Amino acid sequence: SQQGEEDPQALSIQEGENATMNCSYKTSINNLQWYRQNSGRGLVHLILIRSNEREKHSGRLRVTLDTSKKSSSLLITASRAADTASYFCATGPTSGTYKYIFGTGTRLKVLA
Amino acid sequence: EAGVTQFPSHSVIEKGQTVTLRCDPISGHDNLYWYRRVMGKEIKFLLHFVKESKQDESGMPNNRFLAERTGGTYSTLKVQPAELEDSGVYFCASSQDLTNYGYTFGSGTRLTVV
User: Fold this and answer.
1) Are B22 and B75 in contact (CB under 8 A)?
2) CA–CA separation, A100 vs A98, rounded Å?
3) B81 CA to chain A: closest CA distance, Å?
4) Quick one: what percent of chain B has pLDDT higher than 70?
């Protein structure tokens, strides 16, 4: 089965620095999504990148997708303390199913 | 528009008891999903409804878990009897166009079985 695995598992940086998180998966996908979970809260959809796209931007977020390597990265530029959260990638389905597979997440801590 | 609402936000029950979690999706979203995250592990798929029908329940761990979606509106997830390993956060999500917009998740229900 397909599985998103984030790397690193935990990341601690200073406010203003950039944070990069990676996601690897095993099978072909339709799209890949990144979500954020603040402590004790639900998952928030950040960005969706389709399999025919290589890079996508949304505000301070930049996502890349390399389907040949089955990997994606999420870059948060000029991080803020409010970016402290867990970040998950979810790999999208191919034909016949409508479920996405999440990884274990990267815990990001931004120090003020 | 109102988001996905889950109730309760927290539940602490004893082993062997029954718990029912509820999810109200965004109005008009035909697709409703249940996921759970156990003890900091990955977020795992449980099942998917399309309206009132179970499209995929391959992630349901065992027959102690029963999900329903009455009339294609809100959904309930019942755990009976609860075991210690059922502790975790249960997320509900809805979507009308998953491949273009992704899921809208609720805040989750934190279930603790003692």
Assistant:
1) yes
2) 7
3) 25
4) 99
